[in-house]
Write a structure and sequence with these properties.
Chains A, B: InterPro entries: D-isomer_DH_NAD-bd, NAD(P)-bd_dom_sf. Two copies of one chain form a homodimer. Chain A has 325 residues and is α/β, with parallel strands linked by helices. Chain A has helices at residues 22-28, 39-42, 58-62, 85-89, 102-117, 120-128, 152-163, 217-222, 240-248, 289-305; strands at 7-11, 30-34, 48-51, 71-74, 93-95, 144-148, 167-172, 176-179, 183-187, 200-203, 228-231, 253-256, 276-278. The first copy, chain A, contains ten helices and 13 strands. In chain A, strands 8-9-7-6-10-11-12-13 form an eight-stranded mixed beta sheet, sandwiched between helices. The two termini of chain A are 30 Å apart.
Chain lengths: 325, 325
């Protein structure tokens, strides 16, 4: 790589705070700031792109102008919004915010598991109505969990849930029996065959061609009555209409931090169904998260400026960092 | 003890389901059923009393008629409602539901900790208003907890919170540095001096003369802004009026499963304050809890009928089983 300062484009959006380490980034790189609209005019000659507005798919539209691009860093765990076929076929390196969200999202999943089994939301409903209504809760230890997605987030989730006494299995690309975090991993291509005894189903997979719609109507129907679905991956992992129907019937309930369309559109039944607990894509965003993302990028940028390839690289065909999902 | 079947009085109340093992209990003992009203007429000649209506203080009123009583079993962790001076001074053995609630209440406390730090209740409020409002949550690992009460429930709570990564200390009768579950235990008589760095304060002590009003206005004032109080012990451990004032100001928040007066009276501000999450004394009551209590008593009764003293005994002067608080 060259000895001059790399030219970096910071892809952001109106109202998004810049990386806290922007001054340090400017010491290493010649920084140009762009939004989706200005990216085609900003990216010519740039070596690197920091996708700070993580929901942006602007690079696809600016691709023909990206004449010098060698590296794209996505400040998110999931890179699905950024990937497209020309980028996949190119030599451009893609990295992501690997590891940053593992612990925070694992804690969030545990919060959802406990809120469900200890009836916290229902108790708040009774409180709002001024009703003193004793009910029996569930013992969490021994409850059965299937975590779909055996990457860093899924693994941290499995370890935390096991520490609390739940029985956890995983679902991934390859079935196996000796996984250090999951023990048993079932083949996610045959998900529906493994759902009959699941109390909590945690969706923590990357969104790829292989996982889109993985939890379809047939798989949902294979879940037992009163099963609880938690989605901290991507909305499109689930057939949202089919899940909405199951929640409407009262057969399933869910905590959904990600949705097919975000923000959830006004009037969507998931806003008001008693068994649907939607949250605004915040499960991993603990106080200080933007600084952590910023520092991770800065470390990668320092490597890049010194001629060392940042990593680990996203496998652009698979859509995630191999060995982590 | 005698070879005849013991005479057992089952103290219950209208609407309370009898012990699931009542048939097995009847095989061992001559069972008479009483309510608070009928206890004085029922207890003469009885060897043992099972306090199945755990909120009853009926024995105090029936004491002069308890001419043969040798053993009282309270189907609850806390025996505060049952103890009175004449019983304390007598030779009557008192046992309790030791251990039954430890794991379930520890899980409930963890649920409250996570609901607070992950903003679950606020997120539900935004959902009810149809608002998509991204906010930053707190990393739970590393948060600082003080558990007041080093009995079985406090210990199970400490172990579970530590397993999730929180930093936990205890408060008990004797300060020490080498407790296996807590590490540091501070002297609860000087509680206020140890609250300045507490994120979550868990009240899990028995209610005794030494703990009544332990979390008073001065101690509450010593908690830092945004601290979170969880009470799974007894309502009277806390100056409820002073806590209500702190929550009204928005300085503290709380999950309160026990209250000074239960049910919480209509119109009490704790029903509606946004930072007050009251629940109806249910933290330990997991599906099957009455059967577990029933079996524990049955085991004790079998010992008693064989002439073996049931145990461990409650220290009636202290108000709990020694070595567990």
């Amino acid at each position: 790589m060259s000895e001059r300062s790399p030219i970096l484009v910071l892809l952001t959006a109106d109202g998004v705070e810049p990386p806290p380490d922007l001054d340090a980034i400017r010491e290493i790189a010649d920084v140009r700031t762009a939004t989706a609209d200005t990216l085609p005019d900003t990216i010519p000659g740039a070596d690197a792109l920091l996708v700070w507005d993580i929901f942006s798919s602007a690079l696809a539209d600016a691709w023909s102008a990206a004449d010098s691009l060698r590296w794209v860093h996505v400040a998110a765990a999931g890179v699905d919004a950024v990937l497209f076929d020309d980028l996949r076929r190119s030599d451009v390196l893609v990295t992501n915010a690997r590891g940053v969200f593992d612990g925070p999202i694992a804690e969030y999943v545990l919060a959802c598991v406990l809120a469900h089994d200890k009836l916290l939301h229902e108790t708040e409903e009774f409180r709002r109505r001024g009703q003193w209504a004793h009910r029996e809760t569930l013992r969490v230890a021994g409850r059965r969990v299937l975590v779909v997605g055996t990457g860093g987030i899924g693994r941290a989730t499995a370890r935390l849930l096991r520490a609390v006494g739940l029985e956890v299995r995983g679902a991934g690309r390859t079935a196996r029996e000796d996984d250090p975090d999951f023990g048993t991993v079932i083949d996610s291509a045959h998900l529906a065959a493994h759902l009959a005894d699941v109390d909590h189903l945690v969706m923590a997979a990357p969104l790829t061609d292989a996982t889109r719609g993985l939890l379809d109507a047939a798989a949902l129907a294979a879940l037992p009555d009163s099963a609880h679905v938690i989605n901290v991956g991507r909305g499109a992992l689930i057939d949202q209409a089919a899940l909405t129907a199951e929640i409407t019937e009262g057969r399933l309930s869910a905590h959904l931090d990600v949705l097919v369309s975000e923000p959830l559109p006004d009037g969507d039944p998931l806003w008001t169904l008693p068994g649907a607990h939607v949250s605004p894509h915040m499960s991993g965003d603990v106080v200080g998260w933007r600084r952590t993302l910023s520092r991770q990028f800065l470390d990668n940028l320092r490597s890049y400026a010194q001629g060392v390839e940042p990593g680990p690289a996203v496998d652009k065909r698979r859509g995630y960092v191999p060995g982590t999902a």
